[in-house]
Fold these 3 entries.
Entry 1:
Amino acid sequence: MAENEIFTRDVLIKYLNESDKEKIKELTERAYKVKVDNIGTKVYLRGLIELSNICSKDCYYCGIRQSNTKVERYELTDEQVMEAAEFAWRSKYGSLVLQAGERCGRRYISKVTRLVKNIKELTGGELGITLSLGEQSKDVYKEWFDAGAHRYLLRIESSNKELYAKIHPKNTRHSWDVRVRAIKDLIDVGFQTGTGVMIGLPYQTTENLADDLLFIKEIGVHMVGMGPYLKHSDTPLGSIADEHPSLDLTLKMVALLRLMLPKINIAATTAMQVIDPYGREKAVMAGANIIMPNMTITEVRKNYQIYENKPGVKDDASVSKSKLEQNLKEMNIEIGWNEWGDSRAFKG
Ligand code: 5AD
């Protein structure tokens, strides 16, 4: 492997097709070294609050899609969110993520604005706030940014327009172009912006994955969260018999992305933990530097199953915290307590 290798489409495809365990190990170790040389060894935590599972979208892969009538819908109260925020702050997580299905009503938008302001106030501005609330107008993004949120996650899901069309309903509410526009709006507004894709989707090819990596580089985001696609039986795609993608494929994606973009934040996502109990920690050893421990209250966790077998649905925030700390300790991975852990690829 050349030190200054250029990751062209062909090179990426070659690595993604690699099945030799030794070669994969070499790739992930090289990515780990590039991470350490550029941004250090620490993992930063973002406590995850699943604010609501109400969703106006109908993505064919997602368990909380609007048409899934088996899901009991919820929305956390302001008090429940503030309690979780306080837990994150006291736990020295450094920052939190507010995530929910996609909604656009004025009442809801104002609630998010109010929550962001209240969390900032409660923590004297100490706790960083990331939002993951789907596609919104640029004005709404501005409103939330001005309220004090400074990071936003919006996955492109797949950079390939045809594949995107296959995994979403064919209407204007599920438009690839609108989604790309939204990612660009977020960058424009001033957010540290994250995107990402699902790995191992039905119909997805290795070429698509190579293009996903090139898309992520091209669009200029500061953070990335990618994870294996996992089927959910109560969804249209869930009826397609498919095996989980291998953890190796996800690790190769993480490692290649780290080599292409040495300074960005890359999340070791919860979906990785479904295909391997140490999936997230292995991703950290392949170049990821962010973990998002779940802090959602136990009562509603079971209702936020975007895929099946989501780990820790019976746990509460402190159990998720101690399990994660234990895992990280076993693997000698150091945590960046009380730090925002901003992307070093972000220049304000
Ligand atoms: N498997 C894996 N990831 C999924 N997501 C939604 N449904 C699934 C699934 N079945 C991911 C999407 C979304 C994020 C919040 O969860 O990428 O952006």
Entry 2:
Amino acid sequence: MSLLLDGKQCALNIEAQLKVKIDALRDKGERLPKLVVILVGTNPASVSYVTNKAKACTRVGILSEIIQLPEISSEAAVIAEVQGLNADPSVDGILVQLPLPKHIKSKNVIETIDPDKDVDGLHSVNVTKLVMNERGFVPCTAKGVVTLLKAYNVPLEGADAVVLGRSQLVGRPLAQLLSNENATVTVCHSKTRDIPRHTSQADIVVAAIGRPKMITLDYLSPKAVVVDVGINKVDDKLVGDVDFEAAWNVVKAISPVPKGVGPMTIVTLLENTMDAYTWKKEHHG
Ligand code: NAP
């Protein structure tokens, strides 16, 4: 029988722990952590992601604000908004919802965020810290995957891990994190010649490619712990990158879609915001 890597339950457990911490702050009359999300335009998927993030903040007691800017906003206007939040001592975390409209260079906006408030972990300072294995912010989905594996006591040290996908947002930071955890990591991508040759030997397979149900049993062995990051809409249903039905009860463990990595991504944003708050208090009182 396969073990279900239940991201929903794992996220609820972490939320409960965060709520205890924040309730204690409130009881002591202390300032509460605050996340601000900047949303440019009205892309329905982005609106839904941002709303879910704000709801999650409310559940644990983190203050949140959504700054909604019109689609036609200039890059300078978005940057000015970020600069204002950098200077605002009541703001601990800043997240700019991606993708931004095409006329705005995401990199210019991300690089404006104070690295100590960069709870999405995309600023080059935080990317470097991850590579150097130093304390910093790690992109939420990548960190959430490792938190999920650890919650189920999946051994990472010495494990052979294959990460499918190498995006800045998921694959690359995840490969680095797993390497920092002393796993032996192989990264596969669209130009990899024979993906099953790698995945069929692996102890851990993480799929983050955005190809519905591409990872079939041909790719997996019974010893595999499989984490499915993919979110694909097929006939109005959400499916992952892994053929869950085929893999279930064959592989050692597998995360579902939905209720797998999705909730872990959101709860990691809450964790990162709490970390930003704690860091600020330790260093600036
Ligand atoms: P992305 O930026 O489009 O990157 C996809 C990666 O997959 C690229 O590295 C690409 O290779 C590789 N790839 C594409 N087709 C492939 C194939 N046939 N064989 C092997 N590799 C292939 O996507 P992303 O932002 O990383 O997201 C990946 C998936 O995760 C999407 O379904 C996305 O919706 C989902 N996602 C979920 C969460 C969550 O919270 N659960 C968060 C973020 C993303 P190249 O580099 O060679 O192009």
Entry 3:
Amino acid sequence: MYNKRETKYPMPVQDPLVRNQNFKEVALGYDGETAKLEAQRCLNCKNRPCMGGCPVSVRIPEFILKIAEGDFDEAYRIISESSSLPAVCGRVCPQERQCEGACIRGIKGEPVAIGGLERFAADYHFAHANSVGRPLSNGHSVAVVGSGPAGLSCAGELAGMGYEVTVFEALHVAGGVLSYGIPEFRLPKEIVRREVENLKDLGVKIETDSVIGRLYSVEELKTELGFEAVFLGTGAGLPRFMGIKGENAKGVFSANEYLTRANLMMAYEEDSRTPIFRGRRTAVVGGGNVAMDAARTAKRLGAERVFIVYRRGMEELPARKEEVRHAVEEGIELKLLTNPVEVLTDAEKNAVGLKCVEMELGSPDADGRRRPVVKEGSEFTMDVDCIIMALGTSPNPLLRQTSEGLATSKNGGILTDENGMTSLDGVFAGGDAVTGSATVILAMGAGKKAARAIDRYISRSFS
Ligand code: FAD
Ligand code: SF4
């Protein structure tokens, strides 16, 4: 059954010049026959290096073997032992740095398309499965704050064990960054809705428009509402800015605000009541996934030219390689080794240009990356009227300010012990709220790990 083909079976995608005009999903997924052929490229290695590269240790060779044999339901079952959001992870995980980065087939040729196969198994399952049954209640209740991948995974794991779980979400829609950050063309919102519906079928209650720290404090979730434990999965939604002159001009946005308007509020739809600034020429400052998403969104909203402005080089771009490739194919221009120093404005405080300097890479800094250094006399101005700052985010300070005794690090992350418990008894935390902005799979893994610790805590304290 082994397939010697050295390259991945390409996944069909929308044509770049068509897709940069619409918000539909870019990658279209494998059909069953191609998925089987791709799965047959796997060597079923005894020492499973791919599994070592997966932060939640999905049994990769086993699920791939099931796809190769055409048993797609069993493939899904194996994946879902370790991952609560396979349809999401198959689409957005940085596989090239994780499972696929460690795949033996990548030594001579391309690795097995593990992400594409995971996505296939999940999509197949959702297209064919019936709703799951509700487990019997064990009589204990847990509050989860935040409905991103950390909160959803924690809730799902606990509900599966029979806990009565209520998720409190500040926004009017559940899903966290999966709903408000990652655009429709990369992660259709229907998939997130499906995952949330699955949790509801398990008995999880989701209370949207509920800001904890305002509606109830963390303490009150226990003392007034009677939850025996609390999980904080509140993410890192506070945007950072550069602090340069002119940054508060009209036409300058954080990527968070820009993407929330576009994704959550669907400002790109003709009949949307949410306004969005449609720049003529847009500069997105930053080089991560968030920057690529903002740039590709700006292009779809009609900008003539869109630039990624990043102070390091191509090698250092932190975004997933596939996203950079897709962005470039769609016409996004990379302005590398470039750093903004001032937003230029007109008399009405509209942004009318971005003054930048060229950079070169010097010696490595503390984290081993070569430090960008300004090239003397290299100042130049970019002709742009929209500037989107995608420079990273930090945890929102609200819970820290309203929860007495909740220990946090100096960058605002919630401190936890090795089981995910915070300095407050019975209050656990995980995901970006602890680590700062990271990845979906790490947040999901933290949510699952905390759920197991919550189960042990409640068994010890209340049984
Ligand atoms: P979030 O997803 O941030 O969810 C936290 C939730 O808590 C939010 O819904 C928020 O509204 C809610 N909340 C906050 N405070 C309160 C409160 N006081 N009360 C109630 N609710 C509250 N990762 C990848 O792996 N691959 C990618 O391709 C990728 N692309 C990304 C693109 C963008 C634009 C962004 C912003 C991030 C991207 N990431 C990507 C990172 C990834 O999405 C995050 O690491 C992940 O979502 C973190 O999950 P979380 O559950 O910890 O937090
Ligand atoms: Fe298959 Fe690659 Fe994992 Fe080996 S390393 S088992 S070839 S996916």
